[in-house]
UniProtKB/TrEMBL annotation:
Transport among keywords: yes
Protein name: Amino acid ABC transporter substrate-binding protein
Residues annotated as domain Solute-binding protein family 3/N-terminal: 36-265
Region forming the signal peptide: 1-22
Taxonomic lineage from the root: Bacteria, Pseudomonadati, Pseudomonadota, Alphaproteobacteria, Rhodobacterales
Keyword flag Translocase: no
Organism, as annotated: Paracoccus kondratievae
Keyword annotations: Signal, Transport
Family, similarity comment: Belongs to the bacterial solute-binding protein 3 family.
Amino acid sequence: MKKSVFFGSVTAVALAASGALAAEGDTLKEVKARGVLNCGVNTGLIGFAAPDANGNWSGFDVSFCKALAAAVLGDATKIKYVPTTGQTRFTALSSGEVDILARNSTWTFQRDTDLKLDFIGVNYYDGQGFMVRKDLGVSSAKELNGATICIQTGTTTELNLADYFKANNMEYQPVNIDSNAEGEQQYLAGACDAYTTDASGLAATRASFADPENHIILPEIISKEPLGPAVRHGDSNWADIARWTLYALIAAEEYGVTSANIDELAKSSNNPEVQRLLGTTDELGKMIGLDAEWAKRAIKAGGNYGEIFAATIGEQTPIGLARGLNAQWTQGGLMYAMPFR
């Protein structure tokens, strides 16, 4: 789930030379011509992005892929899901293999600048944590001095971990892994005392265990991890489409627009913001190369932000995540859509 430091990253010069940096408007044109959205997702993280036995993908991040496909192509099923690891995800995006990276990735300075990515917003505010077996008898990360810790290689998790242990005058032995699936396997096999990644990823991983009640997530959160979809530098219109699709989902929750009442509100709402959001006035879609009902389709694909959260990772799911910082700004959280006007 974590954030690749991406040592030896592809430079902007190399990307430009390879033609990977899309010209203005090219991505929208290519997606429409292809008839399919290529969406980069996790290789498998329950609740966020995972295929079932029949290869059907679902999850919090997958729902954004569906919303974007609905907005652009008019069909939430017109998606090719491209599984990516912490090591391969940014290469997949910069090379043009995917049109957007919906995989839970942290917005950092280096990725925004050196890797030439545009994060279009934050869809989940997270932080790095630790999971241990209950029988280890540990109740705080500060009791992990000398512990073996499973950690995904090539990620900023490594740097956060090193900083935390140094600041607390502790030592640890890393057990390097390449993916969350390997981390789960190694942790369950007893190869490490603790597993560290984003707290949401730990909750998702624990939910897949046969005995989740025997594993605890320690209280310490040791970093800021603003997760969100990313696109390549160089195509501002495509970035705008992705950004405002995310904002449409967030704004819909704020204004009470749901998958159940959206058609009725499109006809009857007297709220000017809702009218603009749903395309009954102002024709905002024309400004980004889409039709009037692009946002309406995006919301209908899986519901508003709150509906998506509740259905995939919320408190009534096995993942069991509370809204916390991801509540609407009107409810004490940080979710805040820019104005549709």
